[in-house]
Amino acid sequence: MTFEKTSLFALTRRVISLFVISFTLSACASLDQVSKSEFNDPYEKSSRKVHAFNKGLDKALIAPAANGYTTITPPLLVRMIGNVSGYIGLPGQAVNNILQGNAKGLGQTILTFTLNTLTFGLGDLASEAGVKDNNADFGQTLYVWGVKPGIYHEIPVLGPSTTRDTVGFFVDLAINPVNLLESSDARWAGFGFTVLDRLGDRSQFAEFFEETLYNSEDSYATARSFYLQNREFFLSKGVNEDSLEDPFADF
């Protein structure tokens, strides 16, 4: 293989694969660890430092950027960008439906993809038609396979997670169809849509973030509790009761 044929993205995928393997091996050793508290958070001291970094980043950069984005961008365009971000993730979602043996979820995902293709992903005809979005991810797939959550921790920039969800995040990143394209322009465009979608979410749920990060007595403990409860709700309802409604959607 010549150097020209070896793209930076291909190298990145290899690095991600190695990371997932090494992280999974280390995770297996920690899955049975029991925290002295009600949370499996044996590295709380270091996670609090990461939390402080994330909190500072949110205050200095993310929150102002989210505010600016939704202020200068028409609401319709914000929604369209969010729709595109969700649309390009549907093939990866379908893969997780298959891995979970979730025929109903796979049917929903295929129907959503088919309907929204009619608008080139800019519209959300599926939601308007009442088709539920099951939001399947690889962390959920691992849950279905019986993998325990492992330890709680915070990741720089990304925020709260568990061993299982961190592994799931990197696997989802690796199977995202946009990241498999040869065109670097297309990959950067996909990344841009994802970032703008996250900024839109940060603006939409600004009140919740403000209460959690800046008005709570212990923002680390509050964020940990919300994340674990919300994730447990997502997993149990999504897998066992075909309902993936967000308990914090009203914030």
Describe the structure.
The chain contains eleven helices and two strands, in the order αααααααββαααα. Helix content is 67%, strand content 3%. The radius of gyration is 19 Å and the shape is globular. It has a domain at 90-136. A hairpin with a 3-residue loop joins strand 1 and strand 2 (159-162).
- Overall number of strands: 2
Count of helical regions = 11
Q: Which class best fits the helix and strand makeup? A: mainly alpha
Helix content: 55-70%
The shape, in one word, is globular
Mean of residue pLDDT values: 82
- Report how far the terminal alpha carbons are from each other: 52 Å
Largest sheet: 2 strands, antiparallel
| Poorly predicted tracts of residues | 1-37, 239-251
Strand content: under 5%
Strand order in the sheet with the most strands = 1-2
Helices and strands, in order, run as HHHHHHHEEHHHH
How many whole angstroms does the radius of gyration measure?
19 Å
Task: Give a concise summary.
This protein is mostly helical and 251 residues long.
Helix and strand arrangement:
Elements (H helix, E strand, L loop, with lengths): L7 H23 L13 H29 L2 H14 L1 H11 L2 H15 L7 H4 L9 H7 L7 E4 L3 E4 H13 L8 H21 L1 H9 L4 H22 L11
Antiparallel strand pairs: 1-2
Helix pairs in contact: 1-8, 2-9, 3-9, 4-5, 4-7, 7-8
